[in-house]
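Long-time lurker. I teach an intro course on protein structure, and each term I like to show students one example going from raw sequence to a predicted 3D structure in C-alpha cell notation. This year I'd like something fresh instead of my usual example. Would anyone be willing to generate the C-alpha cells for the chain below so I can use it in lecture? Attribution to the forum is fine with me.
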Amino acid sequence: MGELYALDFDGVLCDSCGESSLSAVKAAKVRWPSLFEQVDSALEDWIVEQMYIVRPVVETGYENLLLVRLLLEMKIPAIRKSSAAEGLTVEGILDNWSKIKPVIMEAWNENRDDLINLFGEVRDKWLETDLNSWIGANRFYPGVPEALKFASSKLYIVTTKQSRFASALLREIAGVNFPPERMYGLGTGPKVEVLKQLQRKPENQGLKMHFVEDRLATLKNVIKEPELDGWNLYLGDWGYNTGKERAEAASIPRIHILELSDFSKKMK
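-- Reply from a regular --
Happy to contribute to a lecture. Here you go:
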C-alpha cells in the first residue's frame, strides 16, 4: 500500500514566524498609521518578540495584524479602542483568542477580507522590492527540504497561507518546485473539506492517508468528521503549539505526537 501525506506549511515545513510578524507590523502601519506615530524601533522589536509567543493562536495570516495591534493597545493604554486589551497578558491571548478575536474585530470595525488582501499586498511588495530579506526572514525546519525532495510518498500541502508565498519559499529556500495541483492554499476551503477531496480522488484510492499539522484545534476538527476516520493524525511538536496543547493531544487516542527527526524519516 502506498502512502499519502497531507502537510501543513507554516509550523510543519517552514518557520515563517519572523516574516509573518514583520509583515504584520508593516501592514498594521498601513492600516492604522495614527496608532504607530509614537511607536519606536524598540517597541516594534518588543511586539515582534511577543508575536513568537502568541503565534500558536494564528489560523490564518491576517490574524497577525490583529495581534500586532492588540499587543500595541496592551502596551499603550491611551490608544485603546477595545476593552479586550485591558489587563490582558500574552497568556490570556493564548487561552482566549477565539473569544477575543470577534470582540476586537467589531470594536475596530475591521473586515476579514480587507485584512487578508492588505496582508497579501504588503508581502507582495516586500517580496518584489527586497526578495533576499523576505526570504531571509523565513527558514525551513532542519531536514525538511531533503525530506520533500526525496519522499517516496505522495505529498500534498494543505495550508491557510496564500499559495504564491508557499511556492516562492519552497522554490527559493528549499529548492523544491512543488506541483501547483497538489498545493491547497488560502481560498481552497477549510482543511477538513480539502482532506475529503483528497480521499475521494480516484488516483488516491487505496493509499494510506496521513495528515501532519501543528494546530491541535485543526486536528480536533478532523476527528469530528466521521468521513475522515481513515486519516492518521499527527501533531508536530516542533511547530506553533504550546506544552498545554501537546499534553492534551497526547491524551487523544487518534492523535500521534510527532518529533521532527521522525517526521523527516517518515517522509523519506
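Some talking points for your students: DSSP finds twelve helices and eight strands in the chain. The longest helix spans residues 90-107.
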